[in-house]
Structures are given as C-alpha cells and as structure tokens.
Amino acid sequence: MKTNDVILQFTAKLVFFIIFLFSVHIFMAGHYTPGGGFVGGLLAASAIVLLILAFDLKTVQAGFPINYRIMTAIGLVLALGTAAFPMFDGKPFFTHYFDYFDLPFFGKTSLHTAMLFDAGVFLVVVGVTMTIIQSIGEDE
Fold first, then answer.
1. Is 137 helix (H, G, I), strand (E, B) or coil?
2. Which of 71, 67, 78 is nearest to 119 (CA)?
3. Which of 26, 68, 98, 124 can bridge 112 by disulfide, Cβ–Cβ 3.0-4.6 Å?
4. Mapping DSSP to helix (H, G, I), strand (E, B) and coil, where does residue 112 land?
5. What gap in Å lies between CA 45 and CA 29, rounded to an integer?
6. What is the pTM of this model?
7. Cross-strand pairs, 136
C-alpha cells in the first residue's frame, strides 16, 4: 500500500534544514557556551534520521551518498591528530593552541585548535550514529 506523505515529506525537508543549521550553531558556540562537537553531531544525525523516517533509507542514501564509516575514520584521525600534535612540539597531549586573527568580514577573531578537535568529534558522532541507524534499517 502506497501512502501519500506529501505534507510529512515537505515538513521533514524544512525541519531538516532548521535542525542541521542549529547543529552547526551548537558546534560553533561550543567553545564559549554549552555545546560542541558531540551535541552538534547528535543534532545533525537526528536531522538525517528525520529524513529517513519521512522518506525511506534508500531515498536518503541516494540523496546523501556518504560512506559513514569513512566519515568516522576521518573524524578519528582529525580528533586524535589534533590532540597528539602538541607532543611533537614537546607539550602535553591535548594542549590546544589559539591566537587572534583579523579575518575579512569577521574582524578580530580567535581561532582555536579545539575547534579542529570538535570537528573530529562531530564527524565521529554523525558517522557512528548513522552507521548504526543504517545497519538497523538494512536488516529488513
């Protein structure tokens, strides 16, 4: 039986972008307020799960042809590399660097290596969560 889920699918597409943009906001705000890579990654994964619920797994996989296992591996390398890099400079593991830069359009901005670590965590959380969801969904 084919159902007509036009309203659900349209709303899911709209809400997907709202949730995904909020996950980016939470990720970016994580250095000064609660949030960061883990919570941002969970929100991004939940936005993709919303699309899977409104459409189906095959349709979302066709729309997002992403290998989430590779995404997880890239996130692990980024997070561990950022955490281990200071050891080559004679500093302890997980020492983060930061400085202030004058960027076009943003002005004086502080950039942190903690953001690279959070980006790795973000990728790991999205990758692992979506790998689990896909393996559960493909068991049918």
1. helix
2. 78
3. 98
4. strand
5. 18
6. 0.88
7. none
